[in-house]
Specification:
alpha+beta, six-stranded antiparallel beta sheet, 24% strand, flat
Length: 562
């Protein structure tokens, strides 16, 4: 390892496990637990941190280890420039004796893709330009040395279409308009004579011959030659040689074409006993502020090491006395070696065509604290991690109180004491609203309370329907002149009552919610809401019949409109 590190100092920040006895750190943990316990309602363990006895306190951090590698690939190439008479050093370097890795390139530290070139001194030589063979001129590539090019207007045909007749060879007569006939316009002619058509004397069938005779004229651009002077060489057929800039000689030299690029491998290191729920971030067992990410994988980390190396070798960090970290770094080094030695590598031969020129090792850290403590002579443990002090405590005194509320609510639910069950589950829900089993039981209890209102409403509808039908049939028997007795009408009243009872039962759920504590009263309230609603509806309906006895609605309802 080319970079010197103080491993004794580094081990203070990078370690696998460390026992904590510092009073300030212990007091800080107690303050975190005080704040946490005071946020949770419905228990009497306030300021929990002051009431516990810490038995063991360990720091067991997680790390994200990143190894970045800067690569450089070199290819020997040949270049040329025009010779302008300058002095050229004697050639001592050629393709056979050049060592491309002996030349220094500009240092690159950003691990990004870049390109560079190194011109090799003493590799220059003056030679005759191969393109123009020392003449300084080459044949014009536009006219191929002819000095002329095909006419762009007639395309070598020497003629173009006559613009006067559009290539037709004849022109429409301007007297008859191309019809070849004229209407007779004699002054004393009858109307019949005015309709007489006679041949036009100015043309032959509506058209006259064009002066071009065949629709073609000599091309004015090339004067009928078909070729024009080449604009590139001005008719000479030669142009200045591009390679030597017209000098006839060039300087040939060697240069190194360089490509830089970066690569990166990451490795996460977690303490072997770290609970999986912390790594995955299971929200219903981790206490944290709302909206914060629970997963350790997404937890912000802070940097504890950022160091450059020319090349990092295996076991360079063995002096850290942290076997897990040394193993993690070795894995990253081996990942790079495996990739460089891969048969699918199209970069060439490693250490011949391309090399590692710089590496950077970055270690980021996530603080994790493991505390074993005693409360009321009972042992517990918890984990505190991240920069927001998230707490993982699947078993703790407050959790036991919450579980007591939950168990009590479950028993009351099974006994159908829904109001009492709701009281208990609400306490547990306020303590830990994200726990799935608490949310599920709470929904069941509320659902059964709602069903009682709905049941009462349906009973109210059935009873009201029966009463209304009895009244209706009794009225028909006593007063047969009122309306003709109809079973269909009774069925309609019954259906309306049942449908209305269902909806009024649902409405009762929203009106009374969970305020009514007794199931019998919930059923009665649903019953009375439905009964009152149907009674009012029936009264309004009878009033409507009385006011509008002959309306189409009334006739249809009593089947009189058929």
């Amino acid at each position: 390892m080319d970079t010197k590190l103080d491993f004794d100092k580094l081990s203070e920040e990078i370690f696998e496990i460390k026992s904590v006895n510092d009073k300030q750190k212990i007091d800080n943990i107690k303050n975190i637990l005080n704040e946490w316990s005071n946020k949770i309602p419905n228990h009497d363990i306030k300021d929990m941190g002051n009431k516990i006895e810490i038995l063991e306190f360990y720091e067991k951090p997680s790390y994200i280890v990143s190894l970045e590698t800067q690569y450089e690939k070199r290819i020997l190439r040949e270049g040329t420039v025009a010779y302008n008479g300058e002095e050229i050093l004697q050639k001592t370097v050629n393709k056979a004796n050049v060592k491309i890795w002996s030349y220094d390139s500009k240092p690159i530290f950003d691990f990004k893709e870049k390109k560079d070139k190194i011109k090799i001194e003493n590799s220059q030589e003056i030679i005759e330009c191969p393109d123009c063979i020392g003449k300084g001129e080459i044949k014009c590539n536009h006219c191929h040395g002819q000095g002329k090019t095909q006419c762009s207007r007639c395309l070598g045909a020497r003629e173009i279409s006559c613009q006067r007749c559009n290539g037709a060879g004849r022109i429409r007569c301007n007297v008859c308009g191309g019809t070849g006939e004229l209407r007779d316009q004699r002054n004393n002619a009858t109307s019949e004579a005015n309709n007489y058509l006679r041949p036009c004397n100015n043309c032959r069938g509506g058209y006259n011959p064009c002066f071009c005779s065949n629709g073609r004229v000599v091309c004015p651009n090339c004067n009928g030659v078909g070729m024009t002077i080449c604009n590139t060489c001005r008719g000479s057929g030669w142009i200045s040689c591009i390679k030597c800039s017209g000098k006839g000689r060039i300087v040939r030299y060697l240069y190194i074409d360089i490509d830089f690029w970066g690569d990166k491998f990451d490795k996460n290191f977690n303490f072997k006993e770290l609970p999986e729920d912390i790594i995955t971030g299971k929200p219903d067992v981790i206490y944290n502020d709302k909206g914060l990410e629970c997963s350790l994988i997404k937890e912000p980390a802070y940097q504890v090491l950022n160091v450059f190396f020319d090349k990092l070798e295996e076991n360079d960090f063995i002096k850290l006395n942290f076997d897990g970290m040394n193993t993690a770094i070795n894995e990253l080094i081996n990942n790079i070696k495996t990739k460089n030695n891969s048969q699918n590598n199209n970069l060439g031969v490693f250490n011949e065509d391309y090399k590692v020129i710089k590496q950077r090792l970055v270690i980021n850290k996530i603080d994790i604290k493991h505390i074993k403590y005693k409360y009321d002579d009972r042992p517990y443990e918890l984990w505190i991690y991240g920069n927001n002090n998230k707490i993982y405590a699947p078993s703790n005194p407050i959790k036991e109180i919450e579980q007591f509320y939950f168990s009590k609510a479950k028993d009351l639910f099974e006994q159908k004491c829904y109001s009492d069950a709701l009281d208990e589950i609400e306490k547990a829900y306020q303590m830990e609203p994200d726990l799935k089993e608490i949310k599920a039981l709470r929904s069941k209890i509320k659902g059964n309370i709602g069903l009682q209102y709905l049941f009462g409403g349906i009973i109210g509808g059935v009873v009201s329907s029966a009463i209304l039908n009895i009244l209706y049939f009794a009225a028909n028997l006593i007063l047969p002149s009122l309306k003709k007795l109809s079973v269909d009408v009774g069925i309609k009243i019954a259906l309306f009552s049942l449908i209305a009872s269902f909806f009024t039962g649902i409405i009762s759920i929203f009106i009374f919610n969970t305020k009514e504590r007794f199931g019998e009263k919930r059923i009665l309230k649903g019953f009375f809401v439905t009964a009152i609603f149907l009674l009012i509806s029936f009264t309004l309906f009878v009033t409507f019949i009385y006011i509008n006895p002959n309306s189409s609605f009334v006739k249809d309802f009593f089947n009189e409109g058929r």
